[in-house]
TrEMBL record:
Keywords: ATP-binding, Cell membrane, Membrane, Nucleotide-binding, Transport. GO terms for molecular function: ATP binding. SUPFAM superfamilies: P-loop containing nucleoside triphosphate hydrolases. Pfam families: ABC_tran, BCA_ABC_TP_C. CDD domains: ABC_Mj1267_LivG_branched. It comes from Variovorax ureilyticus. This is ABC transporter ATP-binding protein. It comes from the Bacteria.
Length: 249
């Protein structure tokens, strides 16, 4: 798959909960290399979409194709192995360990799950180097030996993203990455997401329209389980239906 090609495509994706339709025939295309934002009022179906994409929920109808392969019937572990990983769910961080230890644990878990040749002595150095490289990617090298609980809220999020990056996902799903953050932390997380997106694709649920306007290449607006509008920020933010959906809730 080349940059700009479709990496993930859902067709007619639908999820019913006892007759209530939470996701109603969503056909979504996520292009490789994009930061793609999924937005919409509460109850629009964003979380359910994420659960369908990571296979925590089976769809009632429709298909999910990733890198040209139909993964509709895959389970969460298979989906993660194929390269779709959701942050803040798989990798919670341990507060009483150091920042470096947290990333090492995530890497170790990943190594055990894959079929890497495992040589204990050498692997310790390799693991440290790899962990430090990941911390460098998220701007946390300085804090490697700090206890995780002492980090600011924004930096904890950065660490969570680093532990997700340990799985080397091709498509990273971020659930409201700036939620509850102050101005400074929001800026840090924006920079971090931009850096991380240099060599992977990001699909994020985000309520902060300032954040969306600054980093999203593509936006999909959901409302009551269906796509209301799609496009770049300039187009979507001017769409009268989108304005109404946001003003009306
Ligand atoms: P969003 O993340 O956009 O706020 P959700 O995907 O969480 O929306 O929810 C969409 C709709 O589906 C909501 O009306 C919610 O109440 C309903 N819903 C979500 N999960 C379940 C469930 N497990 N059982 C019944 N209804 C659910």
């Amino acid at each position: 798959v080349e940059p700009g090609d479709v990496l993930l495509e859902t067709t007619g994706l639908r999820k019913e909960f006892k007759g209530f339709v939470a996701v109603d025939g969503v056909s979504l295309k996520v292009r490789r290399g994009d930061i793609h934002a999924l937005i919409g009022p509460n109850g629009a179906g964003k979380t359910t979409m994420f659960n369908l994409l990571t296979k925590f929920l089976p769809p009632s109808a429709g298909t999910v194709v990733f890198k040209g392969q139909d993964i509709t019937g895959a389970d969460p572990a298979q989906t993660a192995r194929m390269g779709i990983v959701r942050s803040f769910q798989i990798s919670a961080v341990f507060p009483h360990m150091t920042v470096l230890q947290n990333v090492r644990i995530a890497l170790q878990r990943e190594l055990k799950n894959s079929f890497h040749f495992w040589r204990p002595r050498r692997s310790i150095d390799v693991l440290n180097d790899r962990a430090l490289a990941l911390l460098s990617d998220v701007g946390l090298v300085k804090f490697a030996n700090e206890q995780t609980s002492s980090l600011s809220y924004g930096r904890k999020r950065a660490l969570e993203i680093a532990t997700t990056l340990a799985l080397d996902p091709e498509l990273m799903l971020l659930d409201e990455p700036t939620q509850g953050m102050g101005h400074e932390d929001v800026g840090m997380v924006i920079d971090l997401i931009k850096r991380v997106s240099a060599n992977r694709t990001i699909l994020m649920v985000e309520h902060n329209m300032n954040v969306v306007s600054r980093i999203a290449d593509q936006i999909t607006v959901l409302q009551r389980g269906s796509i209301l509008a799609e496009g770049c920020y300039g187009d979507v933010s001017k769409d009268p239906r989108v304005v109404e959906a946001y003003m009306g809730t």
